[in-house]
Write a structure and sequence with these properties.
- The chain is of the alpha+beta class.
- The protein has a single domain (2-85), classed as Alpha-Beta Plaits (2-Layer Sandwich).
- It is 42% helix and 33% strand.
- The protein has three helices and four strands.
- It has helices at 15-32, 63-71, 73-85; strands at 2-10, 38-43, 54-60, 86-95.
- The chain has a four-stranded antiparallel sheet with strand order 2-3-1-4.
- Helix 1 (15-32) runs antiparallel to helix 3.
Length: 96
C-alpha cells in the first residue's frame, strides 16, 4: 500500500473560498478515479504560523497506481487549478 500526502498553503486572496473549491475537486477525484483506494481531505483549524491550510491523504495499491494518478487528465485539471490558488505545497509518499 502506498500513502500519498500533500499539504497546501493558499494565497490570501479568496482563501476560504478556494480552500472549499479545492476540497470539493479533490473529493470528486476520489469518486471518479478507481486508482484511489482511500482519501481524506482536511482543512486546518489551528492557523498557526507553521500550519498549512489543507491536507490531502490518499492510499494507492502500488507505486504504479500513484504514477498513473499523477498523470491522469482529471487529476491534472485539479492540479492546474490548485497551482493557481496556492503559494506552496509539500508532499510525502511512503510504503505502508
Amino acid at each position: 500500500m502506498i500513502v500519498h500526502i500533500v499539504m497546501f498553503k493558499f494565497q490570501d486572496e479568496n482563501k476560504d473560498s478556494n480552500i472549499e473549491i479545492v476540497k470539493g475537486k479533490l473529493l470528486q477525484l476520489d469518486k471518479d478515479l478507481s486508482l484511489i483506494k482511500k482519501m481524506e481531505v482536511g482543512v486546518d483549524f489551528n492557523q498557526s504560523e507553521r500550519a498549512y491550510d489543507l491536507v490531502l491523504y490518499t492510499h494507492f495499491d502500488s507505486k504504479e497506481d500513484l504514477n498513473s494518478y499523477a498523470v491522469d487528465d482529471k487529476h491534472q485539471e485539479v492540479v492546474k487549478f490548485i497551482k493557481s490558488v496556492t503559494i506552496d505545497t509539500k508532499v510525502v509518499d511512503y510504503i505502508l
